[in-house]
Structure formats: structure tokens, C-alpha cells
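cron nightly-structures :: item 1 of 1
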Amino acid sequence: MTTGTGTDRAAATEAERLLYEARMSGDAQAVLGTLAGSRLYVGITRLDADTPGHTVPLPWRPGPVKGRRYVPVLTQGLLPPWDPELVFRQTTLAELARIWPDNKWWLGVGLGTPYETAVEARPKHRKTWLSAAERAGRPPSDVLVTHGGGALSGPLARGLALGAHLAVLNGLIWNQLGTVYEDYGSDIARMRSPWRVVNRATYSGVLSSLMAARLVGRTQEFVLRTRRALAIRLGRTPAPEEWTEEVTAALARRAADPSELAEAAEVMRRVRRYEDRFRADGVLAPGARVDTLVGFDLGRAVNVVRLALGARFCDPGEAERAVLRIGELAREAYGSWADFSLGYLLTRLIYFEEDEGSEEEFYRRSLGAHRLLTEDPTSPYRTLPWS
């Protein structure tokens, strides 16, 4: 292992800080452990990435030692600015060990940056890569990843923070409009399913629907807004029976059919159930309630913008304008980060509890993201003003 030099280490993430510290201490095992637990990226041309059935061999380039060839990889926090024709695929230390092309080549991590680290890659070394990868497992999820060079203040940061729930759950950077969201192939795949986005036009349609909160569900929003209107009249949160009567009467005036009545009843049941759990878990005050679910569509809209940027369905200027507008819409609908986060959390639970395997695990992870974002002193929900 060899080390690079440089001291400006602010514009990166925790992974790069750990890599730097391991490298500077000369701890080769700690370097491998950090790399094994990190998202690693290899750059390829967009043309190569878009060619069906084409496998791009690992590239090489010169590095810190003259005459030596290095396979260049980057960690998540070292990816370069967005380029329409240069994209990145995610890899792992274990995958690199298995597909390594030449015993004389070295692994070059962050070449030319303050985190530059070169790792020898002969067969005996690659065995240690595999061992480190087995110990590390998958890159972590359910963590808050902040990029020191990303948006940390101002309207753009506030807009990007609306998408932080999904970023936390996936272990991805929350505060960047960058070259990838996860990686080029995954970003395209996520746009296709579930969003059915395959080009700029379909992306624009989905984004418009999310920004207008048309995907969150008319019945779900109707029952909550009915309760809010009743609460304003009563001067307090209605009892469940009062809420049910009000919704039933409103639907009767609209001559709703039995299926609408049944759907409304099920939505109210789920909302009551989860609000009761929130109170028991200390994240919703007695007598408090969630009044709107539009935050879920707005939070998803931010992630769709980031996915579209990674999939090359928009450019950074378009993405920034969209995120700023989403931020404005969120501030019109909510009064605080906590209110927004609870609206997002409740919607996620009532929509997907039956689709995510273990209900208790799904609840625990979703609530954990809310708590991390609303309680961690480094979270944007604590460091950024709502407006």
C-alpha cells in the first residue's frame, strides 16, 4: 500500500475521512476494511454503458509511481461533477478481486485527491480483499450520509433534504445533485420501475404529477383534510367517532359508492393505528395529528429528480430548478421539518405496509429514519431552518 498527500479533506463524506485516517496510520487492514464497506465506482463512457451485452473491461491509468498501472476507482464522496457522457457503475472490493485483469496492476483509489490510496493487487492480496469484504458485508444503509462539498445551507439544501428519508434508508448522500444517485444502471432501472420513465418526456410527466401531489391518493388526502377542517371548527382534534361521522356524511353528500366508503374507512383505520403507535413511541404529541400526506409525493419528487439526473434524463440546471420548486411547495404545505417528516413517514407506512415483508421491520426502519433525521444534531432537519 502507498499513500498520497494533501490536507484539504472537507469536501467528502465520512467514508473518505475513515479511508484517510486508515491510510495515514499505515493500517493496511483498516484501509481494506473501509474499502470493503464502501460504495466503489468505476467510470465508463455513456456509449459503452448503453450498448446492450457489452462488458467494459476495467480501465487503467498512470498513477503516483512512474511506470505502474492503476485501476482507478472512486468512493461515493469523490465522484466528479455531472458529465452527460461520462457515467459510473458501482462495484465492490469483492467484485474487483474476482474480475481483476492483471497481477501487476494496482488498485488506485481517489487518484489525484487528498485521499489517494494505492493497494497492491497480486493474487495473495486479492484473497485478503475477499476476506475483508466478507467481514464488512454490504455497504451500510439506515445512515445519514452528508457530503462536505454538497449543499449545506440555503434553499437548495432545504429542497434536497426533503428527499433525505430515502437517502438515509439506502445509505446514499442526501445533499447532492451529482453524477449518480446510486449508479448509472441502477438509476435507469429505478426510473423504469416503479416510475415507468424511459425518456425526458415521461420523466417530466411523473415529476409534474408528484409536484402536484396527484399520486398520494385522493381518498387518503380527503379523509385527513376532512379531519383538519373538523378540528378547526371544534378547536381540538376530533375523536375517532366524530371523524368517522364527518367523513361518512361528506361522502354521502357526494353520493360516493360503497367502494369509496370502504376505502375511506380503511384509510382512517390505518391512520389511527399509526398515529397511536407514533404517540406510544414519543414522536407524536398527545392530541397532535398529521393533516396532509403531500410530503410523501414531494419527498419522492426530489428523489425522482436525482434519479433522472443520474439517468441523464435532465441536466443539473433543470434538476436544481425542480428541487427549488419542490422546496417551495413543501413550505406551503407544512410548518416544520417535524411535520413534514411525520407526513412522509405516515404515508410510507399506510401505503406499503403490505408490500415490504415483515411489517414490524418495515415500521422500525421507517421510524428509525424519521428519528435520525429529527434528532441527530448533524441532520439537515436540525441544522437547516424550515423557511
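cron nightly-structures :: done
Residues 19 and 29 are 11 Å apart (CA to CA).
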